[in-house]
Amino acid sequence: MIENNPPQWKRLYIQSKVPTELERLEKLANNLWWSWNNDAIDLFASIDQKKWNEVNHNPIALLDILDYEEYQNLLSNASFMKKLDAISDSFEQYMQATPKKHPAIAYFCMEYGLHASFKLYSGGLGVLAGDFLKEASDENVNMVAVGLLYRYGYFNQKLSIHGEQVAHYDPQRFTYLPIEPVRDERGDWEKVQVQLPGRVLSAKVWKANVGRIALYLLDTDIEENNDEDKFITHQLYGGNQENRFRQEILLGIGGIRLLQNLGFHPEVFHLNEGHAAFIGLERLRRYVQEGLTISQATEVIRSSSLFTTHTPVPAGHDGFPEGMMWHYFNEFANAMSLSWEKFIALGRIDPNNKEEIFSMSHLASKLSQEVNGVSRIHGEVSRHMFQPLYAGFEPDELHIDYVTNSVHYYTWTAKAWQDLYAKTFGKGLQKNQADVKVWEKIKQVPDQEIIRIKKYQKAILIKMVKQRLENNMRARYESPKKIVATMNAFNENTLILGFARRFATYKRATLLFRNPERLAKIVNNPKCPVQFIFAGKAHPADKGGQELIRQIFELSGRPEFLGKIIFLEDYDMDIARVLVQGVDVWLNTPTRPLEASGTSGMKATMNGVLNFSVLDGWWAEGYRPDAGWALPEQRTYDNQDIQNELDAETMYSTLEHEIIPDYYNQNEEGVSHRWVERVKNAIAYIAPQFTMKRMMDDYHQKFYLKLAERHKMMVKDDYKATKELAAWKAKIKGNWKEINVVERDIYNFANAPLPLGEDIKASIVLDLGELSSEDISVELLIARRQDNQVKIISKYEMKRQKIKEAAIAGGEGNSRNGQLVKYICDKKVTFSGVYEYGFRVYPSHKLLAHRQDFSLISWI
Question: How far apart are the first and last CA of the chain?
Answer without folding.
Answer: 108
